[in-house]
């Protein structure tokens, strides 16, 4: 009887948790810095639109950029088509400004910009370094790779683009019992201080189980568990991250951006083709809506941001990325197997960085 009561209690808590997410109004989800000014703010949502063919793309070639990891270099590993390189994002009521790496270097002169997160942060960080290098090919660059932090420096402008690898944002600590995911601890955040721009990301690793799961136990306060509902864990981890931002970020000195939830395309049923995956896909989905709808993780992220007092710009890439079932490495990622999680470079992350550029220039 006691076991049934505990099980029913856990189920009730989960139901109440998701009801709280669903009941929130759309406007409650956004605590963000506005893009644009005046009348444009009311009409231009950069994240609502469609994909259109653009023969002038890509902005760079993978063979000319030294910063791309092999698993993202789809052309190197024999991807036969190039159509996925030729699509640009067109917002419904405005145009994205053309990316200008020199202008970004001028705006960021002497500044430190840090990406904080998992391999999707790596994807975006490498894309941005390639885009800037293509815009400013004569600018001297250097790269330093360390265990948790990698840095590309554009020396003529004193601009440092850093990447700090931390899949959960909160800490994973080796203890006597094993690796413990601590949902209320961010000791690693000390490295993030002193940056001019912080671009966060997390979600990709929260659903991993079995051998690919990088922790053995999960801890909240003094309670240590073998496992817990992953969406609830994500919510608690993000809440800890939000508390860190509130306590440690001065908005007059540091701009905070959250990269948003990057989708996967392993299950074709999500776009009404149940026998498909990202393998062999060569064109985006048409229109502006994704059949499977918004993933719960994206709703949780918006809910957490809505409760924050400090300004955070949500780079809301989820829906536009859901439409790009064609842009994954799939089988063209070297020895990494079928990859429907990450993205080819050049490719979709370039659009994420065009949206980032818009956030700084519009």
What separation lies between the terminal Cα atoms? 61 Å
**What is the 3D form?**
globular
What order do the helices and strands follow?
A: HHEEHEHEEEEEEEEHEHEHH
Specify Rg, calculated over alpha carbons. Answer: 20 Å
Low-confidence stretches: 5-9, 15-41
Q: What is the helix fraction of residues, given as a range?
A: 25-40%
Note the topology:
Blueprint (H helix, E strand, L loop, with lengths): L1 H22 L16 H4 L5 E5 L33 E5 L9 H7 L4 E6 L1 H17 L5 E5 L3 E6 L4 E7 L5 E5 L2 E5 L14 E4 L16 E4 L2 E3 L4 H19 L6 E4 L37 H11 L6 E2 L3 H5 L25 H14 L1
Parallel strand pairs: 3-6, 3-9, 8-10, 9-12, 12-13
Antiparallel strand pairs: 1-2, 4-5, 5-6, 7-8, 10-11
Observed structural traits:
alpha/beta; membrane; 7-stranded mixed sheet; O-acetyltransferase activity; TBL; 27% helix; 362 residues
Any overview of this molecule?
It is globular, with a radius of gyration of 20 Å. Strand 5 and strand 6 form a beta hairpin. The chain has helices at residues 2-23, 40-43, 101-107, 119-135, 230-248, 296-306, 318-322, 348-361, and strands spanning 49-53, 87-91, 112-117, 141-145, 149-154, 159-165, 171-175, 178-182, 197-200, 217-220, 223-225, 255-258, 313-314. With 362 residues, it is an alpha/beta fold. 27% of the residues lie in helices and 17% in strands. The chain has one domain. Helix 3 packs across helix 4, helix 4 (119-135) crosses helix 8 (348-361) and helix 5 (230-248) packs parallel to helix 6. It is built from eight helices and 13 strands. The longest helix is centred in the N-terminal third of the chain and has 22 residues, at 2-23. The strands form three sheets. The chain has a seven-stranded mixed beta sheet with strand order 4-5-6-3-9-12-13, covered by helices on one side. A four-stranded mixed beta sheet has the order 7-8-10-11, with no helix packed on it. The relative contact order is 0.18.
């Amino acid at each position: 009887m006691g076991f049934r009561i505990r099980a029913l209690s856990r189920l009730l808590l989960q139901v109440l948790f998701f009801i709280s997410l669903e009941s929130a109004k759309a406007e409650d989800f956004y605590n963000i810095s506005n893009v644009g000014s005046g009348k444009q703010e009311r009409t231009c949502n950069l994240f609502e639109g469609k994909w259109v063919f653009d023969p002038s793309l890509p902005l760079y070639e993978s063979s000319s950029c030294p910063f791309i990891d092999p698993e993202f270099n789809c052309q190197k590993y024999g991807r036969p088509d190039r159509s996925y390189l030729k699509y640009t994002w067109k917002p419904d009521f405005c145009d994205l400004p053309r990316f200008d790496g020199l202008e970004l270097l001028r705006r960021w002169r002497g500044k430190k910009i840090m990406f904080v997160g998992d391999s999707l942060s790596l994807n975006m960080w490498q894309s941005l370094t390639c885009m800037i290098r293509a815009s400013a090919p004569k600018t001297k660059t250097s790269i330093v790779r360390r265990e948790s932090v990698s840095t590309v420096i554009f020396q003529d402008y004193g601009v440092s683009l850093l990447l700090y690898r931390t899949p959960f944002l909160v800490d994973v600590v080796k203890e006597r019992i094993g690796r413990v995911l601590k949902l209320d601890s961010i000791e690693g955040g000390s490295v993030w201080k002193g940056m001019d721009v912080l671009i966060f990301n997390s979600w990709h690793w929260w659903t991993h189980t079995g051998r690919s799961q990088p922790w053995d136990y999960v801890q909240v306060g003094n309670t240590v568990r073998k496992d817990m509902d992953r969406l609830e864990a994500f919510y608690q981890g993000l809440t800890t991250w939000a508390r860190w931002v509130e306590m440690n970020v001065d908005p007059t000195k540091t701009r905070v951006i959250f990269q948003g939830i990057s989708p996967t395309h392993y299950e074709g049923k999500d776009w009404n083709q149940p026998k498909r995956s990202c393998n062999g896909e060569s064109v985006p989905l048409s229109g502006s809506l994704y059949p499977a709808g918004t993933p719960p993780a994206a709703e949780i992220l918006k809910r957490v941001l809505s409760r924050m007092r400090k300004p955070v710009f949500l780079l809301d890439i989820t829906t536009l990325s859901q439409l790009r079932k064609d842009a994954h490495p799939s089988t063209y990622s070297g020895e990494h197997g079928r990859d429907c999680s990450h993205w080819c470079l050049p490719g979709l992350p370039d659009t994420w960085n065009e949206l980032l550029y818009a956030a700084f220039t519009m």
